């Protein structure tokens, strides 16, 4: 049997309270709404293990078209846990990071959507300026502005 190989990272999923609020926030970052629909029924519940479910999803796509963010608002069953205020050193999936071209300008626009910098904007060597923010609904988002042509991956490869 031929070993399966990874083809791409298709999407990251985030459950939100308000799909409209989350869509607006991620559009401000630069993602585009690719589609929005309700997914429901027993077949969907077999995938998630939740049984008969109803969830409205919105698929957002990055400008390069390679990565997607799936936003989900559960209609039923209702959400049972809320990890949005967990600190960054908690176990599990906690944040998603985007590379942007003008961090300060984006932060000023995102502030109008209620985003707040978690700690402070810092500079990592001459490679990135970066920060974490609490965005729409308290979601933890990383933002990084690349300063030069060298990336953190380049440094790791040269060590």
Automatic annotation (TrEMBL):
CDD domains: VOC_like. It comes from the Bacteria. It holds the Pfam family Glyoxalase_4. PROSITE patterns: VOC. This is VOC family protein. The lineage of its organism: Bacteria, Pseudomonadati, Spirochaetota, Spirochaetia, Leptospirales. Residues 8-146 form the VOC domain. SUPFAM superfamilies: Glyoxalase/Bleomycin resistance protein/Dihydroxybiphenyl dioxygenase (SSF54593).
